[in-house]
Amino acid sequence: MALTDMSLDALREYRPAVDEPDDFDDFWAQTLATARAAGGAPAEYRPVTDSPLASVDVYDVRFPGWGGQPIAAWLLLPRGAREPLPTVVSYIGYTGGRGLHLEHLLWNAAGYAQFVVDSRGQGHDTPDPDAVPTPQFVGGFMTRGIASPEHYYYRRLMTDCVRAVDAVREHPAVDPARVVVAGGSQGGGLALATAGLVGDAVAGALVDVPFLCHYRRAADIASAGPYPELVHYLGIHQRDQVENAFRTLNYFDGQHFATRASAPALFSVGLMDPVCPPSTVYAAYNRYAGEREISVWQFGDHAGGRASQTREQLRWLAERGLPGQALGG
């Protein structure tokens, strides 16, 4: 792994020209209003009675997302904690889903409730019935429906993420004033987008090595991960689809969500990350409108700071009045 992007000093000053769609706010206001009006079955929380865990209560959740469609999630509550609880809403990395509830225990151990959101079409438990095939589809989600913002895959997924916040804030075990969105890579990009779309409905954002930022730069320099899928697609369609593809992506760029976010945010970046290059992270971070801090991992690849970043997150949350709750406290 090598340092192939800008120097840290250059990254701190990096503010690329942004061609924001004139109707960006209208597009997302209409998208979310339509999703909320679609209704769907109310959020359902089914206790997992066969869990081997002795200190965590687990619920298998379905809540209404895009089009009112049921989205799977886990709600994990530390047993014995006083309610309502500070809560972390977790979004998942590319091609992953919510997995098993046994994979998500750290936040409970730290005294938080956790709401783990499945990714439609990527996770095992949530299909994507509205998927629009893409000509010359290259095997991932990066180009699915890219011919128009209305049909692009991430319109549906980002809407699900916002609706997850809507759902969890209504649960009686959750303190709606202490909800934090979090994720790494794709999950980081989704946490950033959600923070920009829900305003003060969240109290903080943990945005690790975020994907879905500064697509134009990412297409030029990312050497691994999902962005090469975009390059492959554009290579096939470079005579007639390049401008249209980037027009669609512009509605889903973390740079635009960042300027609309008001919650305090802790970002992280790996300076040797070939998947989400540092300049794409800083392009969003430098535009973030709320209070912001970034953990820089000089020799970090796409894993960033690993467990050391989790330690930074716990410190950062506590400093902002969002500590976990002690059992029985």
UniProtKB/TrEMBL annotation:
A Pfam family annotated for this UniProt entry: AXE1
SUPFAM superfamilies: alpha/beta-Hydrolases
GO BP annotations, alphabetical order: polysaccharide metabolic process
Residues where substrate binds: Y94
InterPro entries in the record: AB_hydrolase_fold, AXE1_dom, CE7
Sections of the chain in a coiled coil: none
Domain Acetyl xylan esterase: 1-318
Protein name (database record): Acetylxylan esterase
